[in-house]
DNA sequence: GTAGAATTTCTAGTGGTGCTAGGATCGTCT
DNA sequence: AGACGATCCTAGCACCACTAGAAATTCTAC
């Protein structure tokens, strides 16, 4: 029994090691630099061990993304709870979201852009993404008016996401980024 | 002289053939199915000829994307000019944008998501993307109020783009898609 | 303590990718 | 006809994600 548990513990530890290594690699050099070879070398194991933990490279990306959701949720929560009034809270949460996307672009991509098979946001979603979405929703709630809260939050989320991805992809000039954000948030805090 | 021009004409024709084949392939099976081998086979040439026309696969994607921008611009224009009043025009243009993204998802990705090195939207952008953006701007203009028209259009664009990509990536449920779009457009046609 | 069983890990390979060097082939001009 | 030049293809590179089967390690039981 003890041997079994020790092995499981070691396995779990190694799995965390793989995820951490993948995250370091991706944040430093982007997703195109994350190959199974480099990742295996980084954790000092051979490639096949990766496949004993994860179904494939996509599953590793998904695991990294889930970590990202936890971070994002924490940052959004901090922004929301330290604001003076509801309007400021929404502005701060929006700014925190944008800052996260700018600070960790590759991680953000894994969470929202890359086609990893995470369930959609909503009640049935995994805990971390759900929590991140919940922070956004609570920031919107006081200003929702008579509109459906969930849908309104999703719409604002779409706006933030679109601005971030278009800007980062070079489709929008960086100049004016702040003002676009303010414009968007303004339309949602009437 | 005539020989020269004939060769140039044939070259241009073949280039169009390549782009058309790439577009057919990508719209039928998605970007992961577009490999240089398959594309070369499709146009009945060997791989290296692709590289005599384009710097690499990314350049082919970019060429396909530019075609897409022309299509999008035309569809947005049709939606805008056939609407009765400004509010309806904005609603129709937004719906046309969403319909385009839903109808040609892979093409849309090449245009807006994939990292092809197109210059950013704005005055210095290539003609087709600029035209598409212009249609959006003209739809926004009558309802811009005192906000900066360009920034406001970019913000709305971000909202549309975000909703489309999040929905298509499985982060938002399809249910409620229409209502989210309506919510977004409503916030921009005050 | 040691032989055998079970599990874990690695070596080596498959079929794919984007891309390219160098030689064969073709049309063109003298 | 024969040489020149542009054009195109064959063959190959280095890399990718992923996997089968051998090797090594760990545990079990005598």
Structure notes:
Chain A contains nine helices and no strands. The first copy, chain A, has 190 residues and is mainly alpha-helical. In chain A, α5 runs antiparallel to α9. The longest helix of chain A is centred in the first third of the chain and has 28 residues, at 2-29. The termini of chain A are far apart. The model of chain A has no long low-confidence stretch (mean pLDDT 91). Chain A binds chain B through residues 112-113, 115, 117-122, 147-148, 150-152, 154-155, 157-163, 165-166, 169-173, 176, 179-180, 183-184, 187-188, and chain B through 112-113, 115, 117-122, 147-148, 150-152, 154-155, 157-163, 165-166, 169-173, 176, 179-180, 183-184, 187-188. The structure holds a DNA duplex (30 and 30 nucleotides).
Structural class of chain A: mainly alpha
What is the terminal-to-terminal distance of chain A?
Answer: 61 Å
Largest interface: A-B, 37 and 37 residues
Beta strand % of chain A: under 5%
* CA-based shape of chain A: elongated
- Spans of chain A of at least 5 consecutive residues whose pLDDT stays below 50 are none
Strand tally of chain A, please?
0
Q: Multimeric state of these chains?
A: homodimer
Q: Mean pLDDT of chain A, nearest integer?
A: 91
Radius of gyration of chain A: 19 Å
The biggest sheet of chain A amounts to: none
Order of H and E elements of chain A: HHHHHHHHH
- As a percent range, the share of helical residues of chain A equals over 70%
DSSP helix count of chain A?
Answer: 9
List keywords for this structure.
homodimer, 190 residues, mainly alpha, 0% strand, elongated, DNA-binding
């Amino acid at each position: 029994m003890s041997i079994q548990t020790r092995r499981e513990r070691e396995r779990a530890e190694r799995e965390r090691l793989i995820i951490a290594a993948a995250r370091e690699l991706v944040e430093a050099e982007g997703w195109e630099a994350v190959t199974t070879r480099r990742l295996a070398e980084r954790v000092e194991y051979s490639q096949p061990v990766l496949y004993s933990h994860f179904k494939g490279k996509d599953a590793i990306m998904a695991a990294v993304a889930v970590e990202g959701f936890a971070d994002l949720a924490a940052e959004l929560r901090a922004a929301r709870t330290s604001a003076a009034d509801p309007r400021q809270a929404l502005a701060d949460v929006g700014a925190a979201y944008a800052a996260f996307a700018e600070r960790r672009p590759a991680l953000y991509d894994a969470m929202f852009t890359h086609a990893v098979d995470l369930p959609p946001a909503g009640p049935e979603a995994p805990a971390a993404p759900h929590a991140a979405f919940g922070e956004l929703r609570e920031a919107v709630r006081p200003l929702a008016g008579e509109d459906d809260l969930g849908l309104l939050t999703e719409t604002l989320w779409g706006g933030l996401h679109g601005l971030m991805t278009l800007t980062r992809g070079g489709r929008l000039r960086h100049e004016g980024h702040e003002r676009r954000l303010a414009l968007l948030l303004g339309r949602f805090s009437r």
